Amino acid sequence: MNMRRSSLEVMREILKQAEGGLKPTQIVYRCNLNFKRFQAHVKYLVERGLLEVVESPRGSKVYRTTEKGLRLLKLLEGE
Q1: pLDDT at 43
Q2: How far is 36 from 56, CA to CA, in rounded Å?
Q3: C-beta of residue 19 within 8 angstroms of C-beta of residue 70
Q4: pLDDT of residue 2
Q5: Residues 32/1, Cβ–Cβ less than 8 Å
């Protein structure tokens, strides 16, 4: 049986995991994605203002869900 997640389900999971801010590798592992698929979804979310890229105090890239992304997440989880 094929149990693939839809793109919407994957993006919802990324937004949920990135609420507090996570490094790319942490999101990949927590969402069970390969890096290529992760990059495609993150690019889409960042372009639409649902996810932001911030620099951590150590200089690494961190993704964090924006207010707009949190509102969308709330709507998606209300389903």
Answers
A1: 96
A2: 23
A3: yes
A4: 61
A5: no
**CA 35, CA 39: separation in Å to the nearest integer?**
6
Question: What are the structure tokens assigned to 34, written together?
Answer: 């390969």
All structural domains of the chain = 7-77 (1.10.10.10)
pLDDT, residue 48, reads 97
For residue 42, the surrounding DSSP H or E stretch is: helix 35-47
Question: Sign of the CA dihedral 34, 52, 16, 57?
Answer: positive
Tokens of 70: 């949190």
**CB distance 38 to 71 below 8 Å:** no
Averages of pLDDT over runs of 10 residues in the chain (79 residues) are 83 95 95 94 97 89 96 87
Half-sphere exposure of 60 (CA within 13 A, CB side): 10
